[in-house]
Design a protein that fits this description.
homodimer; five-stranded antiparallel β-sheet; four-stranded antiparallel β-sheet; globular
């Protein structure tokens, strides 16, 4: 496609990106993969900005200095651990980003959206100081193949993660673009979701329906990485015992519903077919057999450019709670439960990567979606993660080389 | 929903709206219906603005002074006829909006989105000066019921439409929100589409499947309003002879494909299920039996708040070319064929009302959709109509009380 905007307008940005590329290549031994985008990259201003939305004015306060931040976890002291996809673990102490990454992280394959992904504290972190994370482990002897791993280390608040080990190495090898997330359930078990890419040499979308691997699945693990004996497919021939649910595309959000304790997942479709699913043990969520999406080739029926929605539903396969067409590339999500945005209480707030927005889904008293609002589109930033802080404010991460943590505050009428 | 934005910030807008309400009520005997919106009304600046998009910088040049403009037609001399929903026909002469409406228009029911709608020139306008329009004719003795009418008059370039008459009065009476559009086909016939609302007292969504009325149908008429004998359902018992296609929801765009001559239609779904359809004679487009939308109540299966997508497909019912979920309320559309935006050639450009945007749908060499881009979201204006001018520029109408014609120009790299 033709680029008619004059390059000279973006030269400072290009210089900054080139510098970042050099730095990232030097530190992680791989150059970051360019992410295809449909909107121009617009640099984020250094200072706060105020935006109007349907029911609330918002102040966006950026904390810059992150590169491809992916996930964040709030520490009990209010500090934050933030992963960067190239493999670094960062910390924000008293609102200031420590320029020094936390040491001790394993080597990751930072390629085609793979890299260092999720981070979460053990439910008893205050006692055991255990930090969990997901990452893509390179395959020895291959330059672009990796699998998803659940890792763990101990963090005492200093500058190093210690006692770092792989708790679970999945059988989900791929050279494609895939994500891996994890969350602790109310039952104390770890739920880990591993996405499955399309158009790959190693690992195909069809793996999501094959119960003899971990790609395109939700897994259920003990907090030491072992397999609980009461998993839904335990003992079934041909099924990996870790499986909890099948038929997942590229899952980018995974949370626990604050009231019901259910596992809610967001996943990206191709052209259309982004979904929010309520994950129940033993069920099949249909990818790539069913989807509301369309192949990247434009075809509705399958062709050799990747799986597609020949049909939106099929017997024995679950329908999403909600879907998007076209895709906004839904990412992290929360159910808002705080007091800072009273009009948003009980709403879903979900990020959009390609759709460069924070989307609000209004639910009625029966928990059914009745309205959606696209917010912060003015920023033109790929929103990777959405979290509610202990202060009731929202915290977003932007999926950009010049990435940022965004604190979202209400602007009250008196201001 | 709570409105936390301070009202005092919007008092000038509120004053202007109140004034407009008073003026409109006085001139058309009905107060305009407030349109529910999910974004705040943001006044359009008086001067041009420049926006970046993925492949093209755009200059938006507003021409203000219109109220709820609905459709426009280019006259051979480059002037423009513009309908306003309250019932006025306006003219732009040499780029200037004549403050005096064109006289001679019939009385319309301007209520719940009904009113004066489409406008088109006869293919031989240069000879016969015939102008066609669609409007909602009030039912005598009822305060809120109307039906769709195809009207015609003669326009010699002056200040009056003469010889105005109803060519075809549909049997599509309703008190709900509905649209009516028309276009001349390559065969010289008039294709007229009449939408069907939901949650109404008179006229229900189920009418769209009943072949014995004109609501929720595409009709095919001669240029004098009579019925062509070769219509697809001609002579079939229980079918109105004007019917061309069935199962239409609220159609807001209707155009002829510039290469194939096919009839392309846009229609609004409820929560999700906005569609672009390629209309073929004799076919059923499924509303309200099938849809990708969801009832306003949030339910997926039907309830008493209106029809919904119990299923996205069914035998004997056509699938859309493209659909949206959530709805942006797709409106007017064009296939871009001009030289002013070379990167957009062959793309679909479609308006969004609720979605306050101009959306670009990129098609591949086989005519299949491969990408969508939301543009002009910064304006926060409900886009009602999209037309390509004889100059290759784009012309949009904003569906606002303080509405405008927007001329969209490319901004070249040297500027």
């Amino acid at each position: 496609m033709r680029q008619v905007v004059p390059l000279k307008r973006y030269s400072p940005v290009i210089v900054a990106l080139v510098l970042l590329l050099v730095v990232a290549a030097g530190s992680a031994q791989q150059a970051p993969t360019p992410v295809p985008r449909d909107t121009l990259f617009v640099p984020l201003p250094d200072g706060p900005q105020v935006f109007k939305t349907a029911e609330q004015r918002l102040r966006v306060v950026p904390l810059k200095g992150l590169s491809r931040p992916w996930a964040l976890a709030f520490l009990p002291d209010g500090n934050m651990l933030i992963t960067e996809r190239p493999g670094r673990l960062r910390i924000v102490r008293n609102g200031v980003l420590d320029p020094l990454p936390i040491s001790g992280m394993p080597q990751v394959l930072n390629l085609r959206l793979k890299g260092l992904h999720d981070i979460a504290l053990h439910p008893r972190f205050a006692e055991n100081k255990l930090v969990y994370f997901t990452y893509w482990k390179p395959k020895p002897g291959e330059k672009d193949v990796a699998t998803a791993v659940l890792g763990r280390g101990r963090f005492d608040g200093g500058t190093a993660l210690t006692d770092v080990r792989d708790l679970f190495v999945a059988d989900a090898w791929t050279d494609g673009a895939a994500a891996a997330r994890m969350v602790f359930g109310r039952d104390g078990k770890i739920y880990m979701v591993i996405g499955i890419p399309i158009r790959t040499r190693v690992g195909t979308a069809e793996s999501a329906q094959n119960p003899d691997n971990h790609a395109g699945k939700v897994l259920r693990l003990n907090d030491d990485g072992s397999t609980p004996p009461d998993n839904p497919f335990a003992g079934r021939a041909g099924y990996r015992p870790e499986l909890y649910a099948l038929g997942i595309r590229n899952a980018i959000g995974l949370i626990i519903h604050p009231e019901t304790g259910e596992i809610w997942e967001t996943e990206n479709g191709p052209q259309g077919g982004d979904e929010i699913n309520v994950i129940k043990g033993g069920l099949n969520y249909g990818w790539p057999v069913i989807s509301f999406g369309r192949a990247y080739s434009g075809d509705v029926t399958g062709d050799n450019s990747g799986p597609t929605s020949a049909q939106p539903s099929a017997p024995g396969m679950e329908q999403p709670f909600l879907f998007w067409a076209p895709s906004i590339a839904v990412s992290g999500m929360v159910f808002y439960t705080g007091d800072q945005f009273p009009a948003w209480k009980g709403n879903i707030l979900v990020g959009g990567l390609r759709g460069t927005q924070l989307q609000r889904v209004v639910l009625n008293a029966r928990g059914l979606p009745i309205r959606r609002e696209s917010m912060l589109t003015e920023l033109k930033q790929r929103i990777r993660e959405v979290r509610q802080g202990p202060d009731g404010l929202l915290y977003l991460l932007t999926d950009e080389e010049a990435g940022a943590l965004l604190r979202i505050e209400p602007v009250n009428s008196s201001e």
